[in-house]
Every structure is written in C-alpha cells, then in structure tokens.
Specification:
The chain has two domains: 86 residues, Sandwich (Immunoglobulin-like); 293 residues, 4-Layer Sandwich (Purple Acid Phosphatase, chain A, domain 2), CATH 3.60.21.10. Helix content is 17%, strand content 29%. The protein has six helices and 24 strands. Helix 5 runs parallel beside helix 6. The protein is globular and about 60 Å long. The N and C termini lie far apart (58 Å). The protein binds 2-acetamido-2-deoxy-beta-D-glucopyranose (3 copies) and fe (ii) ion (FE2). One 2-acetamido-2-deoxy-beta-D-glucopyranose binds next to loops. This is Purple acid phosphatase. GO terms for molecular function: acid phosphatase activity; metal ion binding. Belongs to the metallophosphoesterase superfamily. Purple acid phosphatase family.
Length: 441
C-alpha cells in the first residue's frame, strides 16, 4: 500500500498545492510524525470507533490484505468475546494509490457507560472502549485541525490523560492533502485514542482533496475512512448528520464545504432535524462546523460568511447553545451572538482549531475587527477543549492549552442551557426556517 513511488507522487502534489496556500506568518509548526505499519498485511490497523444509533458503535479499521473478513468479536471481559458482528467494506483509488480494505462493522446493542473488549478481523490485537453514559453528566473532548505532528502528539497526550466520553472534531483531520499514505499514517497515529472512545468528526477543507484533471471527486478518502452515522439522522450525506448523547444533548455536525443555501439538501435536512428535537427531553443543542462565522483572526477572514448568512437564522431560532468551529489555528471565544450583534438568546461561538497540525498557529488577531467587542478571549496557542454537560441547565467549558509537556486551563466558563431561559422561549410550531422569531432582545 505505501509504495515509495506513491509517497513521492504524493509529496509532489502536496508541494504544488502548498504553492497556492495563503501567506500569513506562522511560527515554526511541529514536525510531521509518520506512523508506520510494521505488522503483517492481514493485521488490522487504524482502528477507530464512532457512535451509531442509540446504543451501537461502528468499528472502522483497515487491512492491506483484501481477504480479511469484516468481522468484530467483542465482550465485556478481556479475551472473552461472546458476541460478534459482520459488517461491510469499501476501498478507493486516488491517482496511483489504492487503499487497503476499509472495514466498517456496527456492533450492539451495547450497555451504557460500560467497557467492551474487542478484536477486529478475527486476528487483530485486543482493543477496548467505553460507551457513553445514558444520562448526564457527560464530557466531550473537542479538538479541531488536528494533523499528525509533535504538537498533535502533545495535544492527544493531554486529551488521553483524563477521562472523557466522546471526542468531537470540527474538521481537518490528517492534513494528508492528497498524499494518501498520510491518511494511513494518521489512522495509525490516532488509533491509541480513537479506538478507545467514539470520535465524531465533520469535514474541513483539508478533507476535500480534489486535484485538477487527475481527481475531480471530493472527499473520497474522508468518506471511505471516516464514515459517520448519517443515515440514522435522515441525512443522505456523510458530510452532515446529527446524533443524541446521554438522552439530553443533540449534536449537529454541519458541512462547510458542501451546499448550504436554502435550496440545498443540507439546509432542508437541517431545518427538519431541528424541528425533530424535543427540548423538553433534550435541553442541549450543540453544533460543529469547520469555517468560523465569527472570527477576529486575520486568517480565513470571511470564509464562513456565506454559510452564516444561509444558516444562522434557523440555528438561532432553534436556540442552539453553542457552535464549535475550527479552520483558524488558534483559540477564540465569543459572547452569545446573532447577526453580528450580542444577543442573549444566540449561541456562544468557540474556535478550537488549535489541535497542532503542520501549518502552525494563526498568530495575528485584528484589533480593529468589527467583531472585536463580541470576542471575549483569543489566543494563538495549541490545545484542546472540554465540554462537561453537568445537568439539564449547566455545562462547563474549559480550554486546555499545551504548555510544553503540561496542559494548563487557560479559559473556563459556565454555560446555561438556553432551553432553561424564560426570555428565550420560542414556539417550535413556527418551524425554524425563514426570518428570525425574535429580532432583538
Ligand atoms: C512498530 O510500530 C510501532 C508503532 O509505530 C512502534 O512503536 C514500534 O517501535 C515498531 N516496531 C518496530 C520493530 O519497528
Ligand atoms: C446543575 O449544576 C449546577 C452547577 O453545578 C448547579 O448549580 C445546579 O444546582 C444543578 N441543577 C440541578 C437541578 O441539579
Ligand atoms: C426545556 O423546554 C421544554 C419545552 O419548552 C420544557 O418542557 C422543559 O422543562 C425545558 N427544560 C428546562 C431544563 O428548562
Ligand atoms: Fe481548515
């Protein structure tokens, strides 16, 4: 799979792509860490898991050997697999690169907050994961723009040191940038974390990977490798979907790089999905997407503006609590906003694009930006976020900065669920599309 000429071609295309990259100054990024596969061709690698349905898990992994069956054996004690499931497999080609056999196996029903031991392909190493709890509290680790550098290793090291239930990633995973073997390296790099807790991801610009003339179809590697539970939420695309956590949180993953205007499938799906949320049962509503709608960094200015114009109103009308974004390689937290003004019924916007990829940090914030008064804290450092949803009304957000080998809490704030706010009550029967229900508060 990782043939030398394939790597060489990848680096050539990567070089051509970099020529077109925009030019703001960044400090020295971390070195890329290549993670090799040194076991047999039939040995399962790149194991990662994602939540599927109310009580299932999708186990995804790759073998170079196409004869390995898509089977996962699992159970609640090490080495004792009393259950098993068979799934599906896929593969893709990119220029001269041919992927291994990419297996996706749904297992379950699983008990909540329980450790399961599992083995892939009947031959792999034993892995284990913990399912999310059925009730609050629940804790999310949130990281954007991850990559696979020394800084990424530091961020993931901190993520893995303390317990959490699920990882949310608002786009830009491997930074393979058409060099397909780097996707395989990334899969192996994150396996120690992504095989233990569900990783729920949405796509960023680095997942698009079209190449003039040679490869016109977008997201082929991403969709084949990082398959998320979109059908279960009525979506027809792996690029946007939603799911519930702990019976109290609805998480919506949106796609910044697919159509989002009011006539698009994504928009129609979003409005329907919002209408299905019963806030009496599900007081928390969280959204992730890649390109920020609010951003005072000089990097990527205005790139999320068309999507903001198209989708801000339905999200506001549905009283989304918080929107996590990436793309800008820095941290920034805004006050509650709607339509470029502070609004106590709007979502908090948080940029958490500081996972540690090879492009380094976006250091320059614009002191004269029109949104400066809405921006409460901003800093260009690597790190990750934690959202601990404590109960139906309170959640604690913290940003954990990488200070060399330590992790330091550099921002924290309590968030109140908008559902609990009398002043922000809406009438769900009005639906969530069209003009705002409440203009000014
Ligand atoms: C095999 O790969 C693992 C993970 O990259 C590494 O820790 C280990 O040292 C490697 N072993 C050999 C013999 O290269
Ligand atoms: C929810 O958690 C907050 C913060 O810990 C606490 O102040 C509040 O009393 C809790 N509410 C309920 C209903 O337990
Ligand atoms: C959330 O809203 C629903 C419907 O308005 C209401 O029944 C429920 O009590 C609210 N939850 C909280 C925690 O306020
Ligand atoms: Fe990005």
């Amino acid at each position: 799979m990782t043939k030398p000429w394939s790597l060489a071609l990848g680096f050539i295309s990567f070089f051509l792509l970099s020529l077109g990259a925009s030019g703001f100054t960044r400090p020295a990024p971390g070195r890329i860490m290549i993670t090799r596969h040194n076991k047999s061709e039939s040995h399962p690698q790149q194991v990662h898991i994602s939540a599927v349905g109310a009580d299932g898990m999708r186990i995804s992994w790759i073998t170079d050997d196409k004869h390995v069956p898509s089977i996962v054996e699992y159970g609640k004690a090490p080495g004792k697999y009393d259950m098993s499931a068979t799934g599906e497999h896929t593969s893709y080609r990119y220029f001269f690169y041919a992927s291994g056999k990419i297996h996706h196996v749904k297992i379950g029903p699983l008990e909540p907050d329980t450790v399961y031991y599992y083995r892939c392909g009947g031959v792999g190493d034993e892995h284990s994961f913990k399912t999310p709890p059925a009730t609050l509290p629940v804790e999310f680790a949130i990281i954007g723009d991850l990559g696979q550098t020394e800084w990424t290793a530091s961020t993931l090291g901190h993520v893995g040191k303390t317990n959490y239930d699920m990882l949310l990633l608002p786009g830009d995973l491997s930074y393979a940038d058409t060099n397909q073997p780097l996707w395989d390296s990334f899969g192996r790099f994150v396996e120690p974390y992504a095989s233990k807790r569900p990783w729920m991801v949405t796509e960023g610009n680095h997942e698009i990977e079209t190449f003039p003339i040679l490869h016109s179809h977008p997201f082929d590697a991403y969709n084949a490798r990082w398959r998320m539970q979109y059908e279960e939420s009525g979506s027809t695309s792996n690029l946007y979907y939603s799911f519930d956590v702990a019976g109290a949180i609805h998480v919506i993953m949106l796609g910044s790089y697919t159509d989002f205007d009011s006539k698009s499938d994504q928009y129609k799906w979003l409005v329907k999905d919002l209408a299905k949320v019963d806030r009496g049962q599900t007081p928390w509503l969280i959204v992730l997407l890649h390109a920020p709608w609010y951003n005072t960094n000089t990097a990527h200015q205005g790139e999320g503006e068309a999507m903001r114009k198209a989708m801000e109103s339905p999200l506001y009308n549905a009283r989304v609590d918080v929107i996590f974004v990436g793309h800008v390689h820095a941290y920034e937290r805004f006050t509650r906003v709607y339509d470029n003004k502070a609004n106590s019924c709007g979502p908090v916007h948080i940029t958490i694009g500081d996972g540690g990829n090879r492009e380094g940090l976006a250091r320059d914030f614009d002191e004269n930006h029109k949104s400066v008064s809405l921006s409460l804290l901003r800093e260009a450092s690597f790190g990750h976020g934690r959202l601990k949803v404590v109960n139906r009304t309170h959640a604690h957000w913290s940003w954990h900065r990488n200070d060399d080998s330590d992790s330091t809490v550099a921002d924290e704030v309590w968030l109140d669920s908008l559902n609990a706010s009398e002043a922000c009550k809406t009438d769900p029967s009005l639906g969530y599309s069209g003009t705002p229900v409440v203009d000014e508060l």
